[in-house]
Amino acid sequence: MAILGAFLLEKEAVGRLYGTVEAEHLRFHSHQQVYAAIKKMYQEGMMIDLLTVADYLQRISGVDELENYNVPYFLTVLTNNVVNTAHLEYHAYIVKMMWMEREVITLTHGGNFD
User: Fold this and answer.
1) How does residue 113 score in pLDDT terms, banded at 50, 70 and 90?
2) How distant, in Å, are the alpha carbons of 31, 46, 55, 97 from that of 10?
3) Please, are residues 88 and 6 in contact by the beta-carbon 8 Å criterion?
4) How far apart are CA 54 and CA 90, in angstroms?
5) Bridge partners of residue 80, in order along the sequence
6) pLDDT band at 112, cuts 50/70/90?
7) What span, in angstroms and rounded, lies between the C-alpha atoms of 99 and 84?
8) For the chain, give me the number of helices (H) and strands (E)?
9) Which residues contact 100 (CB under 8 A, 6 or more apart)?
10) Which residues contact 15 (CB under 8 A, 6 or more apart)?
């Protein structure tokens, strides 16, 4: 949540992590949807902030709700999880390590985390 929130608040955040974290590394489908939209917007040279991502998700991607909340509210909640972006790369490292742990559990025990 902190990484996605940082993407919505800080202009350079996506560029700092581009190619480091992928949508599949995020645990929840709603977070994967937001990340995929932000990544696509970044690749297309679009401006990324709370309003533009909400607009993209709703108008372009056709997403009406994320986890039973309207899109703008859900995105605002993501931004509330940002303390600062000084350690954004380390936050990405943590997310990736947690994803790797889930993958190992899934491969060895058939665990489902959804």
Assistant:
1) low
2) 18, 14, 18, 24
3) yes
4) 26
5) none
6) low
7) 23
8) 6, 2
9) none
10) 42
Closest CA to 8 of 67, 65, 56: 56
Query: How far apart, in Å, are the Cα atoms of 42 and each of 36, 75, 105?
Result: 10, 17, 32
> Rounded to two decimals, what is the model's pTM?
0.83
d(CA 40, CA 37): 5
Query: What is the total residue count of the chain?
Result: 114
Amino acid type, 106: T
Q: Which residue has the tokens 């491969």?
A: 107
Selection from 8, 15, 4 nearest residue 42 by Cα: 15
- In degrees, rounded to 5, the angle at the alpha carbon of residue 44 between the alpha carbons of residues 66 and 18 is 75
